[in-house]
Design brief:
It comes from Thiorhodovibrio winogradskyi. InterPro entries: DNA_brk_join_enz (IPR011010), Integrase-like_cat_sf (IPR013762), Integrase_catalytic (IPR002104). Keywords: DNA recombination. Helix content is 44%, strand content 8%. It is mostly helical. The protein folds into two domains: 55 residues, no CATH class; 69 residues, Orthogonal Bundle (hpI Integrase, Chain A). Strands 1-2-3 form a three-stranded antiparallel beta sheet, with no helix packed on it. A hairpin with a 4-residue loop joins strand 1 and strand 2. The longest helix has 20 residues. It is elongated and about 60 Å long.
Amino acid sequence: MRFCPIARKAEGASNGTINRGLALVRAILRRAERRWGWLEKAPAIALLPEPKRRVRWLSRAEANRLLEELPDHLEEMMRFTLATGLREHNVVALEWSQVDLVNRQAWIHADQTKAKRAIAVPLNSDAVLIPCR
């Protein structure tokens, strides 16, 4: 794995990809300084600018291709995930007590979300029509 940002950029790597490598090097150097005492002072490693939010949706063709490649036992779970936009853990941990089919919504508890805030998830027709097993 190369850590030179200039070389990685020339190879076509995104700033986010480069930053993941730089963050690893920075963490190792900080540990060498603070825990192991190998360095007097860890060098400052600046990360490259990244957009604050990454928004990307699968196209219908990409979603269909994904569903075709999945094993049968995961297909319905992925259909629900695509219909709701929920994270894998939220779909797997979802309980019937959190689903309101009459009002077509699901509730994800605060302790189950990344942001630690409860969220209401609207259930569209695709999500509601997925068979339960």
